[in-house]
Design brief:
187 residues, 48% helix, single chain, alpha+beta
Length: 187
Amino acid sequence: MSPSIPPEVLVEVDPLLLSRELFAAIFLLRERTGCSLATALEQLTWRSEELETLHPAFGEAEAARRWRERSPEAWRAEAREALDALPRPPLAIEVQWDGDTWGWCLEVFAILPGASTAHPRFTCVPLVTMRPEGEGRSDARKVAIEVGRWAQERWGSLFYFPSPAESPDEPRWWDTLPAEPGDGAGS
């Protein structure tokens, strides 16, 4: 049975869910009902599932989104496209786990030469974010390794995957390098 969201709140929440403005929907529901974050997430998950049935186009869009987030074929295609779009060869391909409210994701980045807000010598470009479920974690790891291999074969890029098991506390690739005078890298 679905948790109950008051009808006067549904009128405001539904358009946010239908346009995938999840944070705004969470904020609104918590503000209007005083519920906890966990309750808001549970209620909005139920309501999103109901909306998929009530609005077939939304249901199709959500099914396509889930496929893109959870399908190894989609991950490969997204990573290949992102690699092909890089402005220059990456120095390294970095793979990092990250966890959030919706679970673990495996992120693959290209590290390019050139300063950024994250580092004085390097720029991190996201290639693909994979949200595996259950046994899909091994598929995500395989895809990440494939992406690293593609970059190694094409450009001779280094591959950095410090923790094949879920661990958000691994150092960034650039933090493993010796420091250059005055840049703070490697510290």
